[in-house]
Amino acid sequence: MTASEPKSAGQPRVGLFATCLVDLFRPSVGFASVKLLQDAGCEVHVPVAQTCCGQPAYNTGDRADTRDIAQQVIEAFEGFDFVVAPSGSCASMLKKHYPGLFAGDEAWQDRAERFSAKCHELVSFLTDVMMVRDTGTALDAKVTYHDSCSGLRELGIQEQPRKLLANVGGVEVREMKDSDVCCGFGGTFCVKYSDISNAIVTKKVDNIDASGADLLLAGDLGCLMNMAGKLKRRGSAVEVRHVAEVLAGMTSQAPIAGSGK
Fold first, then answer.
1. Can you give the pLDDT at residue 162?
2. Which of 8, 40, 121, 130 measures 20 to 30 Å from 260, CA to CA?
3. Domain 133-247, CATH 3.40.50.11810 — does that match?
4. 34-86 pLDDT, tens per residue?
């Protein structure tokens, strides 16, 4: 389906911004996102023209390439009622940083602002816009939730995933200490400052293990892969998944393995 197709009666047309990491490393998160959005009553489209949100270039100071990427994203998605991403960092880039890229540009500033106004992170969109309270799923697990930096600090996402998890049958949420503290990923930060990143994720994994949970959840795949890698290297039995997979009842795939030896 394309952005030009007619809207179904009563259904908001949502463009799913799948994100690079989901596309390349964890497509199941994209499928879970589609299921959750459709179950919430949305007409979901996944434009084939989508690419990166531009955040890596933006974070390294390359504004020219970021603007080019942003223009491509806006053109691919601006025809939808909403744009939703299963990632706090990517959603924040679309919502909070795109308008500033085009400040003073008569041809693009208003266009970017209109686009950004309809961008949302997946779980907050479900709870705050579509008013979802229960996704009708169950999982026998003790879970702990990591609040990723961009989602929490730029988009105010904290209670939304916990409200939905509270209604997943069989799930017991065990809050870890400092759940709102960075995991050490930070995009290119973990590459530029690997020693500092490792120290941060070591403390995070200490808190994950101490929570007594057997499953770690979050809403950003970059954070999840970083923590999964450290848990794997430590030999921890804690499994790692994107929160969308649990909320959608799609947990048959192996958990996120992370990287490293």
1. 98
2. 121
3. yes
4. 999 999 999 999 999 999 999 999 998 999 999 999 999 999 999 999 999 99
- pLDDT of 189: 82
For the chain, give every residue range classified as CATH 3.40.50.11810: 133-247
Query: Residue 121 gets which letter from DSSP?
Result: E
The first and second tokens of residue 167, run together, are 């209604």
Cβ(255)–Cβ(239) below 8 Å: yes
Average pLDDT score, the chain: 93
> What is the C-alpha separation between 148 and 123, in angstroms, rounded?
13
Element (DSSP H or E) covering residue 186: none
Tell me the CA distances in angstroms from 17 to 93, 194, 216, 228, 246, one per residue in order.
12, 29, 24, 24, 19
Residue count of the chain, please give it: 261
Per-residue pLDDT at 5 exceeds 80: no
Tell me: domain 13-128, CATH 3.40.50, correct?
yes
CA separation for the pair 245, 106 (Å, rounded) = 41
Whose CA is closest to 47, among 13, 21, 24?
13
Predicted TM-score of the model (pTM) = 0.92
Residue 39: CB atoms within 10 A of its CB come to 17
